[in-house]
Amino acid sequence: MINTVLFDVDGVLLSEEHYFDASALTVWEMLISRNYLALAPEQFKTEYTEEEIKEIRENVFQTDKVLKFMKSRGLNANWDMIYLSFSHQMIHLLAQIKEDEAANIAKWLTNPINYETLRDIGRVLSQYQAELNFSLFVTEFSRSEATKQELFNYLNVLAEEKLGVKTSIFQKGELWSICEHVSQEWYVGDENVLASTGRPSVQTGKKGFLANETTLAPTEEIAALFKHLTTSGFTIGIGTGRPELETVEPFKHLKWLPFFDEKRIITADEVAKAEQELTEPKSLSKPHPYTYILGLKGKGASVKDCLNTTLPITNGEEVLIVGDSLADLLAARQLGCQFAAVLTGLSGKDARQDFEHHKADYILETVLDIKTIL
Fold this sequence. Notes:
The mean pLDDT is 96. The chain is built from 16 helices and 6 strands. It is α/β, with parallel strands linked by helices. α15 links the parallel β4 and β5.
């Protein structure tokens, strides 16, 4: 019998749309802004209309085909998606100048890529007519069987194939952190970026999307679901790839926070802190089950204790994980927990076939249908 329910946030409780909008704007900025590759600095601005954002997103993510492809390969974090998209496009740009700039390319791709490197690449690219081509992403990555964090390494494979440079530079390092920071500028805005990242904005003038969250069911009905679960004796928690600020603040605004023990609200911040404690670099983001293990044990449990947890866990059938992605399902499978897929994520009802293929325990139209299975 289920007695604990752990919820993902994006695609389950809150819409992912603004996250994907911010992700597209991030890739766009890093390609065209003078702060980065500066392909078209005169086109960069910090305020866009909804129609302009839609157009940029449709271009960068090819009407979301790129996003859906990455999700189908088990990638769940927007920062990872941004990093892959930008890095792939950068490799494509460099491939167009490799005959004349082989020495520079070898230098750039055998050292950590930082702000100075990006601007140096931009200065050289400005001398050529290199063109973007976002449609190549799915075509080129489809040649690989890589999933999850293995997709990062496939960037190294593409760099050797397209540029003739053998490298291991495309891992979670300085360039990944730059992508993360630009994304946070767009999502939380100038007012919150310092609190979110510990660093000021590189490019000011962004209002952020944080104050405009969209719920995936009526706010009051989700609150009623939480109340029903807690008063019925269920333990509930959150396991999300969002940072703490972007989880707790909306929950406060929506008046959902009182239903949760904050020790069971696990965010990307806890995952990042845990990764810093590891002696060897390793991703603990979903589909790694760390987020949900900590949600079960509660904040305060040591990283060592969580990682030494025997999987599948004892009495896993008593835990229900509610998510919208393959990454959530894979984490639940490792834990030996039950999994309820909701069809309110990026792929909507089209995700049903994937969830049926992976034998999700339950497939629900919305998070409100949880009541029907408990």
